[in-house]
Amino acid sequence: MDLLTSLTNTQNDTLPFFDLPQGDLIKTYAPGKWTIKQILVHLTDADSVMLDRIRRAIAEPGGMVWAFDQDTWCARLEYHNFPLELSKASYIANRQITIFLARQYYASSGANQFVHSQTGLRTLKHEFDKVSIHNQTHLDQIKTALNR
Prior knowledge:
Layout: H1 3-14, H2 22-25, H3 36-59, E1 64-65, H4 70-76, H5 84-109, E2 113-116, E3 120-123, H6 124-146
Helix pairs in contact: 1-5, 1-6, 3-5, 3-6
């Protein structure tokens, strides 16, 4: 499956989960793990962070990008209280921009490099691919939570 199809499919598979009833949003895929709501807010924030990295790799290749502590974001941004309708709108906008940029730059600028503060040298292609892979991982967790 190509990247554009994967980005579109993971978006389409994710969107209905933003509209789950409250009783489902508090389910977890394992004891002590994030709730479905927290996963959805995290997906939105992570897509935003990765979109920033993608933009930087296109516009300013060779730069440094910083890691983010997802658990700190979850706690300090109070994902459990975060308005899901805002996350959904942001998720849609970020994903549409990512798809647009992938269509424009994945092939032509995919070798552009940047340095990640924790993992080192990476490419634009790697970051585009990560968006879809990351989303699929969390989709699997959501489906597991709903089946518990």
